Amino acid sequence: MIDVPLSALEVAMVQAGTRAVDTLRDTTAFAQRLDALGYRRLWYAEHHHSPAIGAFPPVVLTAHAAASTSAIRLGSGGVLAPNHAPIMLAEQFGTLAALHPDRIDLGIGRGPGTFDEATARALRHGAGPTTEDGYRDDVAATLRFLVEEVALGTLPEPWLLASSDAGAALAARLGLPMAFAHHIRPDNTLAALDHYRARFSPSPWCESPRVLVCVETICAETEDEAKWLAGPMNVVKAGLLKGHSETPFPSPEEASAHPFTAEERAGVAAFGAHQAYGTPETVLRRLAEVAKATGAEELMLVTPVYSLAARLRSYELVKQHAATP
Q1: CB neighbours of 194 closer than 8 A, spacing ≥ 6?
Q2: Which uninterrupted H or E stretch holds 296?
Q3: Helix runs in the chain, H state only
Q4: I need a surface site. Which of 91, 122, 280, 294 has the fewest CB within 10 A?
């Protein structure tokens, strides 16, 4: 049984043999179905120049989904501070929060959103990677502009995304709720959460430590089907293990023919041991274990599978078998 709220992360994988515009159209149906299922929030990730993920701005997807749904919270998970002027982030998400009161989240992250250095520089008008101090200042400025400059009334709920101790330290210092990328850096999770809770300073945004943990989750009627659905993302992970940038997102049939090396299989298996794949019973047990181990107040599920129907079915099965607030 799961006794914490469940949310979702939309990564917008572009299926091999389809166009990015097809993935974009799917995002509306996805948001509407999760709204109907009662998921707490849906966040959109920022990516650029990727063969596997659509380059859809989180602020645009948030605005569209907010106009197409009625209850689910929506926002960025995250919008990447180094790529945007703080005042623009404040204006964009402040406006959304005014148009859709108590439904908008502003999740802020640090990464470039791309593996391509030229793209990263283009996003930053030719500037190089941001520093820790620069990132801290950008986040603080965004929060300040929300209050002092935008001031449209209801504010978006700010979150800081983290995958390491450094991100956890900044969230604690600024007194922000933290969303931890367990689906990317599971080995860092427990130490970072301890760091965050031990050093948290209350703020007007958040009175006490508050943690959301994102878990890669693939749920199906049978274990074999879940394994089949996990195949495409395993191919992408194998490429990353070899130091490649992102590869196209293959179909399950293409993934089943991929020649994994022993090292790749071991790496993929080690990562999967921290996530939640399988039947509803298996997935709910794993999610409950993650919630207990991390003390998370909320779990966010990311489900990188090939078809919209299979992805929605995964979320339906989890929700049907979970007793959540």
Answers
A1: none
A2: none
A3: 20-37, 58-68, 86-99, 117-123, 132-145, 165-174, 189-199, 223-241, 252-256, 262-272, 280-294, 308-321
A4: 122
Task: Dihedral sign for Cα 70, 146, 92, 125, please.
Answer: negative
Q: What are phi and psi of 278, to 5 degrees?
A: 135, -155
CA atoms of 296 and 6, how far apart (whole Å): 11
The answer to whether 213 and 189 are in contact (CB under 8 A) is yes
pLDDT tens per residue across span 170-179: 999 999 999 9
Structure tokens at 203: 């703020």
Calculate the alpha carbon distances from 133 to 108, 122, 139, 190, 238 in Å.
15, 21, 10, 24, 33
- Rounded mean pLDDT, 261-289: 95
List, in order, residues 6 or more apart from 182 with CB less than 8 Å away: 189, 213, 214, 215, 274, 275, 290, 294
Measured CA to CA in angstroms, residue 315 lies from 20, 111, 271, 281 at distances of 22, 27, 21, 13
Rg (CA), the chain: 19
**Residue 109 falls in which region: left (phi positive, over 0), alpha (psi -120 to 50) or beta:** beta
Take residue 157 and report the two structure tokens written for it: 């709920």
Dihedral sign, Cα of residue 200, residue 202, residue 205, residue 211: positive
Phi-psi region of 202 (alpha: psi -120 to 50; beta: other; left: phi over 0): beta
Question: Tens digit of pLDDT for each residue in 100-151?
Answer: 999 999 999 998 776 667 776 766 767 777 888 999 999 999 999 999 987 7
The tokens of 267 are what? 């790496």
Q: Can you tell me whether residue 244 is helix, strand or coil?
A: coil
Q: How far apart are the first and last CA of the chain?
A: 11
Residues 6+ positions from 146 with CB-CB distance below 8 Å: 90, 93, 94, 106, 155, 156, 158
CA–CA distance from 261 to each of 257, 277, 300, 309 (Å)?
12, 22, 31, 30
Give the type of residue at 105: D
Residue 300 neighbours by CB under 8 Å, 6+ apart: 6, 7, 8, 9, 41, 43, 77, 179, 212, 213, 214, 215
